[in-house]
Amino acid sequence: MRDPVETRMTGAQFRKLRQKFGLSQVQLASKLGIPKGSLNVAEWRRNELVPPRLEKALLQFVADGDYAPPGPKPRKRSWGTSKNFSIPAPFKNLPTPGSACGCEDKRCALDPKEDADHGSSGHFWKFRGRKCKKTVWLNNRGKAVSAPPPRRQHSVIPPEVCSSCGRNRALGKKRIAKLGRVVYRRYCRKSGKPRCSAAPSYFWEVGGRIEPIPAHIWSQLKTRTQRSFPTPVCANERCPGIGRTLEASGERLNGRIAAFRCRGGHWDFRVIPGGERAERDGYACYQWTDSDTGEIRTIKGEKMGRKVAKPLPPKKLCPDHNVPLQNHYGPWQNKKTRKLVWGAFCPIDGRRWLVSAGRAPRKHTRLRWTKRGRPAGVSRDTLDRARVAAAFLKCGLTMQEMSVHLFPGTPKTAYDNTKSFFRRQRALIESAKARLTTAEAHRITDGALKPI
Q1: Pair 252, 259: CB distance under 8 Å
Q2: pTM exceeds 0.90 for this model
Q3: Radius of gyration (Cα) for the chain, nearest Å?
Q4: Residues in Cβ contact with 411 at an 8 Å cutoff, skipping those fewer than 6 apart
Q5: Region of poorest pLDDT, from 2-16, 100-114, 259-273
């Protein structure tokens, strides 16, 4: 019999021979008694020769005949034989992708998750959509059903099917401190779509028997306030939440009217402390019938005044530089003249001025601080840079040429800084340009363009 191993084999030939034996790198390394990393490096170098030590160990392994021919490849696992299921599913086909979960995506196949036995309700298999991640339950016929009832059912309280959505209702229990006993509740799960708005059913144990809790007792237990009347329930026949307890939404008119809101979008108002039903009649006006005297009573609140627009400051020019003044704060009312006064400042030298309608600007002798902090002015560096920029502009330099001299410390962002400076200080530059003569502008430009 010809030896299957050829002398001085390459890494690619060594890999093919290992795959022919049906062994992994870890298995072959353990049989040869060498590290797995050495074997991996030898196979990775496909066109280089295998080290003599590794080749000698492989020859000895083949001579001993410890290897066995590879068996048939394992079958690909399918959803029917998944390890997640304790009992294989009796149906052979799954619903079309996207139909059972409702996403209508053809790529959304169902992946197996688990199965559960729910006693008399049957055995169910749980799947999850590959794209939408929604949970789908299938019965023994492979049909999608709603969420099955919980596995632990109360032996006394029978299962209940919702008359609105047709799903099996879950069972919950909670101890109520006011009653001193345990209360059982049958409700529809919120995870279902569409969500069911039917009111849950409440039960308690009386004399060893399970009986429904009266509605008036449960309504008194639902409220968290100390009012003498119970929380009302929705009585609108057109509302999907009819019969459900309304949510408290605060009090109106200094505690005279209690407001309740339904999830359907409508409101209900009750009078404090009697609890009579009140009807809203206009803004901050409620009307009801007194339960003791039978008289119709009305209560009104004060109307809110309209918001008055803030007056705009008058447009004034700086007496020194003939440029528009910028508003800083205000207005406030002068105690003597009863006129509105604003505080403004000059964009060139930063001097403060007081402006008012029908009067020339006057100097602000006292500095006033506001909640917005210290008033901002114009620094000396900004004034000097604006004067040089005005001279450059008057001499006909482009923005690219003047950017190197206006911002010499930042050569990479000098052009962007120059554009931003012209955009923010346009009024300051134009004012400086108007005051400069041609000879003075050329003198400033020649001094700035001199090499350092």
Answers
A1: yes
A2: no
A3: 44
A4: 404
A5: 2-16
